[in-house]
Amino acid sequence: MIVKGKITKFLEVLTGTSEKGEWKKQSFVIDTGDQYDNIIAFDVFGAEKVENLTKYNKEGDLVTVEFNIKCREYQGKYYTNLGAWKISKEEAPETETDDLPWP
Please, which residues have CB within 8 angstroms of residue 79's CB and are 6 or more apart in sequence? Predict the structure, then answer.
């Protein structure tokens, strides 16, 4: 799936250890500029992706995020996350009008 928006926030890097070894995860939030349901939080998983997230992206950047929806069950509860696997910068529109999809 693909969505476009402006990065509004980077959340704290989370780390831990699983049976497969150490892991890193970071979430970030984008605003799509839509009237309803305009804020979406994505996750990147893995040390390299976490490092590249803030190395190449800043708050306020217009981006296109390609992601997968993942859901898992744990003790009868379901947890869904949006795993970003590609983040591309977009150029800001040169002129602003009410019809543009950017906030």
Answer: 71, 72, 73
